[in-house]
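Q: You know discrete backbone vocabularies at least as well as I do. I have my own habits and do not want them to colour yours. No explanation is needed for now; the record alone will do.
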Amino acid sequence: MTSDEDKRPAGYASPPCFMHEVDPAPDATDPQQRLDVMRWRKAERERLIQARLETPAGRRRMYGERIAAYLEEIIGEVAGATVSAYWPFRGEPDLRPLLERISRKGGRTALPVVVQRGAPLVFRAWTQGDALEKGIWNIPVPPPSALEVTPNVVIAPVVGFDPACYRLGYGGGFFDRTLAVLPKRPRVVGVGYSVAAIPTIYPQRHDIALDVVVTEEGVHLPSEVSI
């Protein structure tokens, strides 16, 4: 079976017609410019999620296994460390088997939880078999009774990412808001499929670059690029 992903030529998505007017500098503050960026991100987010969902489930599983293997290499020794990942949503790589392996190796695993809109995330300890409840978007999360932890490594799913390792997420700003207030920044690793690669997310003041992005094709370190 051939997916739409297979039929597309290699390369990046063509930018919208207004994009040549948008300054990609992170310190951009012009209100109209910001509005244009937000409109573009909404459209690009929808396009990338659709491309992800159109990838056959079997291929996504294979990609997820590759991504997990790369993650184990770059995270390294996990004994005594706390690693937060996520519950897979809308075709995201499923890293639950990786969390099980981390637990067996002596690491603590956790999931992020939205406690309220506009607030930073909290991280609650969770291992396979622990209780879960429905969170925002009905994504399973550990209940309030679970231990709140501060992760050493945060694995964040990406909808899109650019060569500088800026992350296009779902638009809620939760990860950026969380990283901005943590007393000590953890190592932040983005994960997604190679189809999520785009030339730029047009970073704004609030955007915080990831330390690295991992796809089924390998490990992507941030690079300085000009558009």
